[in-house]
Amino acid sequence: MKSKLEQYVENIVRHTESSKAEKEDLYEELLIHLQISRDSLMEEEGLTPEKAEEKAMRLFGQEGEIGSQIQQALFPYRKELMLTLAISSIIFTISIYLISLFVKGDAYIGWLCISMGLSSMLLFLPLNRSFHINKKLWLNSLLVLHTLGQLYGWLITSQLDQSSTVVGLTIWVWLNIALSLGLVYRTTIYDYSSDEKHMKVLHGINITTGIIISGISLVFIVGGLIMIGKFHFIMLVLASPILIWAGLYVAQLKIAKKSTRIAFLIGMIPILACILAFLYIYFPNLFFR
């Protein structure tokens, strides 16, 4: 059974995002430091081992606070960038909703709720110190959904009539999208340890193709909604490329543990799909003669 000191160190390490080997090293370093502190308190103040452990942990600080500080040291400025993105997205969402409501009379309540919810969760993640969640998985999922939500906001913006307002809002939303995608790349690629370079490349390929595939699918879905005027089964068909890409992404991550070559071969499938989509959009004569 683990001691309170070991459990305390484990809780600190859980609040950090790094590779398994890095977490093990961090755990050992923190545990040794606290054990030395405990032994010093026993010698200098004559405390029992239990009392010395409790005081050492109390002097060291609260688990979530320490974990957050270590996280900030490992990945500097990411917290500030996330807070900036969340606040900017919240203000943008409210602005678009009010402008659309009072200028065109269109109330995009569904988009408002979804976009505000995603932005609020982005605001919560970097501030959370109470409990541990798989931040990397949650953060990337939220950032991808947030990007899609901001893309929909851009489509709403493009329907406004005031040219000067549209230009300003368009620049604003694309800055939000660029920051969101930048955080996805950084969290997934650059926050990996140096001994996982092949995984960085694999993630980079999938993130890039995923953004392209999701963007194209979203454009077709929105276009279908505009033409049909209501939800239709065809919308699910248009969204299927995103599900296929996600399935291939998960398969690559599992296969990469056994064979990197096969994982990269599977990664070529969405790349080819993006190339075909590009040719279909810009050179339709190649497909229809």
Describe the structure.
With 289 residues, the chain is mainly α. It has 3 domains: 4-69, no CATH class; 76-191; 194-289, no CATH class. Helix content is 82%, strand content 0%. The protein contains 11 helices and no strands. The chain has helices at residues 4-14, 20-45, 49-60, 63-74, 78-104, 109-127, 135-158, 163-190, 197-228, 234-256, 260-282. The longest helix is centred in the last third of the chain and has 32 residues, at 197-228. The chain is globular, with a radius of gyration of 24 Å. It starts with a helix and ends in a 7-residue tail after the last helix. The model has no long low-confidence stretch (mean pLDDT 80).
Sum this structure up briefly:
Keywords: Membrane, Transmembrane, Transmembrane helix. The protein contains eleven helices and no strands. With 289 residues, the protein is mainly α.
Please provide the ordered H/E string of secondary-structure elements.
HHHHHHHHHHH
Query: What count of helical segments does DSSP give?
Result: 11
Helix content: over 70%
User: Separation of termini?
Assistant: 73 Å
Shape descriptor: globular
Number of strands: 0
Mean pLDDT: 80
Total individual domains: 3
Q: How would you characterize the largest beta sheet?
A: none
Which ranges are low-confidence, i.e. pLDDT below 50, for 5 or more consecutive residues?
none
Briefly note the structural class of the backbone. mainly alpha
Radius of gyration: 24 Å
Q: What fraction strand?
A: under 5%
